[in-house]
Design a protein that fits this description.
Length: 124
């Protein structure tokens, strides 16, 4: 497969963006749902954390100019580590376990998503 780095990304870009570690556990599903809800409600544009992990320089440089919120589910901090490794220094951060939820023990419900969303929506 050809390298498609020169093709433009279909992700939305605005001044305020959200990146979610959409990991395989319950908390990853919650971070993904919250990021999508922030997008759907016009609070932030959701963008792709993987593009940073893949080292796509154009996107990395564009994102560094934005107000970025990273949502991580657990203390492994994959999203935060990806940004730190890519040289990001000025971004907002929310770890779901800091709100009292436990990895592997949290049901993915609208009530949980709302609680996390209500916290994330206020971060600027």
């Amino acid at each position: 497969m050809e390298n498609q780095e020169n093709e433009s990304c279909l992700c939305g870009v605005s001044e305020y963006i959200v990146l979610a570690c959409s990991g395989a556990c319950d908390l990853g599903q919650i971070t993904d749902s919250v990021a999508r809800k922030l997008r759907d409600n016009g609070v932030r544009k959701m963008n792709c954390l993987a593009v940073i992990g893949a080292g796509i320089e154009k996107s990395i440089e564009d994102f560094k100019k934005k107000n970025v919120l990273v949502l991580d589910g657990c203390p492994i901090d994959c999203g935060k580590r990806i940004l730190d490794n890519a040289g990001f220094s000025d971004y907002k951060y929310l770890r779901i376990t800091d709100l009292g939820f436990k990895k592997g023990q949290t049901l993915v419900t609208e009530e949980v998503i709302k609680k996390v969303y209500d916290t994330a929506e206020l971060i600027y």
